[in-house]
Inverse folding.
């Protein structure tokens, strides 16, 4: 019997806990807020996924050591920008032989570290034990058991296999992979591209415009990911184009919805004020742009999204900046 600990009781932590339970894995969740812990123990995380009746295999606690005790798999599902501080608080409770799974899709501000790097750095976890799960996995669809596939990437294939075995459910199909860098860059960057697509939608643009942003977004994501050592093929797979399509096209995506509101004329502060869930691209646009600059990679869409988020550049100015760039060959 595999046992898992899931740190984070938000949308994806809860939906993924449910996938693990449906695959026969016993799960203890850690949550920092007692009311959410109590709700999970009563069978439903009302605040994040009211539509999901939780399996009896799932319980929750506010004690990190209790959650982690005896776990074969530890799943981390907190906001990317709080992970380092969280690991400072409870990293020492994680079992030293567990596979440590990142569900997070972001890049740390300041350090420009990917989440697996933060886990190794702040959690003291050897890179061979770190596993990244990423793909077109909108939590609300997974919660109602709509079929989806995902990538389970680790440098050590046995760790990827352990996690894939523990999360393969009738409606959830994991594919193992060894490209941790490519999988993480694809997952973080698609959130920024989804902000741009949402913005175009909010401005009233149609499918040609959105498809153009998605495709050119994939081009710059692939450029960045391969410059960092990722495999170009990863970006054509589930963690790449698969997740990019889901996030850029779905009204369920928080990043997409955030962008729509910007396109409709709301300011970043106004959108933040009405957004109560994590829209990772809003922070990671800056760290991903920093990463691209460090490696001399041209990422024009990410650059414009960052200017909109951090400098208040207007959406029409962003459109003008993107369309007035010097023309070039598509493969350039
Ligand atoms: N929701 C989705 O469909 C998917 C989300 N992801 C990724 O999973 C990660 C988590 O996202 P969600 O669960 O959707 O976010 P969420 O906003 O639904 O939940 C975030 C969770 O983190 C907790 N939290 C907030 N601040 C915290 C802090 N300072 N310390 C500890 N915990 C804190 C919240 O209480 C909540 O339990 C993100 O990186 C996201 O990109 C990945 C795939 C799908
Ligand atoms: O990563 C996701 C789907 O795979 C969820 O996207 P959002 O964080 O934009 O909701």
């Amino acid at each position: 019997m595999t046992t898992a600990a899931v740190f984070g009781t938000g949308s994806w932590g809860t939906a993924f806990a449910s996938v693990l339970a449906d695959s026969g894995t016993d799960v203890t969740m850690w949550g920092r807020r007692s009311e959410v812990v109590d709700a999970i123990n009563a069978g439903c995380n009302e605040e994040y996924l009211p539509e999901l009746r939780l399996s009896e295999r799932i319980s929750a606690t506010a004690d990190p050591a209790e959650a982690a005790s005896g776990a074969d798999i530890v799943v981390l599902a907190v906001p990317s920008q709080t992970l380092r501080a969280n690991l400072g608080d409870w990293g020492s409770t994680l079992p030293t032989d567990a596979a440590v799974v990142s569900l997070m899709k972001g890049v740390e501000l300041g350090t420009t570290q990917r989440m697996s790097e933060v886990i190794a750095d702040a959690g003291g976890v050897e890179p061979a034990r770190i596993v990244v799960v990423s793909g077109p996995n909108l939590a609300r669809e997974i919660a109602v058991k709509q079929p989806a596939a995902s990538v389970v990437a680790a440098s050590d294939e046995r760790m990827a296999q352990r996690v894939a075995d523990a999360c393969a459910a009738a409606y959830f199909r994991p594919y193992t992979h060894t490209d941790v860098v490519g999988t993480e860059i694809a997952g973080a960057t698609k959130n920024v591209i989804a902000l741009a697509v949402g913005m175009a939608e909010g401005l009233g643009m149609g499918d040609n415009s959105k498809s153009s942003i998605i495709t050119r977004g994939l081009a710059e994501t692939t450029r960045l990911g391969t410059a960092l050592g990722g495999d170009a093929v990863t970006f054509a797979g589930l963690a790449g184009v698969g997740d990019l399509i889901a996030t850029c096209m779905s009204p369920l995506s928080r990043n997409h919805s955030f962008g729509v509101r910007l396109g409709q004329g709301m300011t970043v502060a106004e959108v933040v004020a009405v957004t109560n869930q994590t829209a990772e691209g809003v922070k990671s646009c800056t760290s991903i742009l920093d990463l691209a600059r460090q490696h001399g990679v041209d990422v024009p869409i990410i650059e414009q999204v960052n200017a909109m988020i951090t400098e208040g550049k207007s959406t029409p100015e962003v459109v003008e900046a993107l369309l007035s760039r010097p023309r070039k060959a598509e493969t350039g």
